[in-house]
Amino acid sequence: MAPLFLFLILSSVFSFGASTRTITNYSFSIREATIKDIKQSIERNQLTSRQLVEFYLGEIARLNGLLKGIIEVNPDALLQADAADKERNCKLPGSLPDLHGIPILLKDSIGTKDKMNTTAGSFALLCSVVPRDAGVVSKLRKAGAIILGKASMSEWANFRSLNAPAGFSPRGGQGKNPYVLSATPCGSSSGPAISVAANLVTVSLGTETDGSILCPASFNSVVGLKPTVGLTSRAGVIPVTPRQDTIGPICRTVSDAVYVLDAIAGFDSNDEATRRASYYIPPGGYKRFLNPYGLEGKRLGIVRDPFFKNVQGLGLGQTFESHFQTLRRGGAIVVDNLQIDNIDVILNVNTSGEAAATIAEFKLSLNAYLQELVVSPVRSLADIIAFNLKFPDLELTDEIDQGIFLAAEATNGIGALEKAALLNLENLSTNGLEKLMRDKGLDAVVTPRWDASPVFAIGGFPAITVPAGYDSQGVPFGITFGGLKGSESKLIEIAYAFEQATMTRKPPSFKP
Ligand SMILES: *[C@@H]1O[C@H](CO)[C@@H](O)[C@H](O)[C@H]1NC(C)=O
Ligand SMILES: *[C@@H]1O[C@H](CO)[C@@H](O)[C@H](O)[C@H]1NC(C)=O
Ligand SMILES: *[C@@H]1O[C@H](CO)[C@@H](O)[C@H](O)[C@H]1NC(C)=O
Ligand SMILES: *[C@@H]1O[C@H](CO)[C@@H](O)[C@H](O)[C@H]1NC(C)=O
């Protein structure tokens, strides 16, 4: 971003402050504001989308140098804000979609056909031209959202190397956890989580193949919703594997995440999986499941071994015990001491078959994505590997190997090994989470932090992470509710009621 551009933004924020004594109180109210708060202020003529975007641009100018949550700001963000403000004047109140005039940040792997780049954090894709907006981006534009920019991420969704630092990409630099700057922000949707946590934007979109929404949400004290695979379109998003990839909201509150989910879920002719999954969407969408009494009568399973045993060792045991009490007080039936069959196998990407299947699928999917680009300096995984060898331009990139890339490049489609791995993964889900949920009649399982992400990843199951506390160093952690495919309505009821009963999230403190 050009320094001149930043200066103009800053001066416009300052002049706004100088002319209207309410700047502190006004900016205070934008910080931590929900979509609902913002809509209300806009309806009362206390706020415009332009003021909202100006506030965020000011905060980005102030904080992004430190946090590196954002790779690019949309040069058209203010234009889009003005268009939203203008359109609002000509429409009846209440006739506009919920996201109308609301700024949203997209992980850098989510394609936009506009002035911005879509690169998964890599210089290899700089100035590539996508054929069209990603399916979820078309839906966001239809809903009137303002695309504020592209968020940083772990390069290639953490699929380049096993030794890549979380939240680092050559284009974005090292993203920082705004609570404890020396702690990991986790990845790969690091930038979306960092940026909503630090109030650089209202809401954001991340993607998950295994843990990439749940983990950064957990570490940045925000809500991460990983939808059932296919509920949201993956078309136009730089892929890992269509078998597990899913696009979902990362926001400060459950209700914000649900407003975003309502806007992006549903059929997209460019992603066949959305056809079937769209039948999961309840009439009228998910908003009506924002029910403060949503815990009443829900059967929640607790798998202690290994999940809560592990966090007990970290001194978080008491906090989670008190959360179980909260769930019971809310009227949930907590079914304790359950087991998921073969959990040790499921949690190890090598023994489950997840690694073997995913690397082969990655090569196929990434090559297909690159082939579809209108313009691109690279057209295959092999080209990207060669690019990285030729341009180890950053000190840090030099030290990051291409282990996963090379393993993926060595695969040759879906052969006997991959088929066996895929069968094993299916079996692990059928005889694992699915069997447990059905045998015990559960509505959801409760797990700490993001730790159960492989359980949800390999089966394409949905899960939602809600802030659950801060450790002795001040590093945030979440609690995750997961369930069977299409169970978003139930998960939202549970997560919302839990959030309302606990209200654990607080804005970041920027500790060293
Ligand atoms: C702003 O401050 C005024 C005066 O102190 C107060 O009446 C008003 O409620 C405040 N508005 C917000 C949104 O906090
Ligand atoms: C996209 O990348 C090109 C090349 O670095 C750059 O000139 C352009 O400004 C980028 N777009 C945005 C919106 O930053
Ligand atoms: C999986 O295998 C790779 C390559 O052999 C190894 O580096 C990695 O540590 C293994 N991961 C686990 C969870 O065992
Ligand atoms: C599926 O898993 C069950 C136990 O969980 C095991 O007995 C069975 O052999 C597995 N089937 C295949 C085809 O791997």
TrEMBL record:
Organism domain of life: Eukaryota
One Pfam short name: Amidase
Signal peptide limits: 1-19
Keyword Signal among record annotations: yes
Amidase domain residues: 52-448
Record keywords, A-Z: Signal
Record protein name field: Amidase domain-containing protein
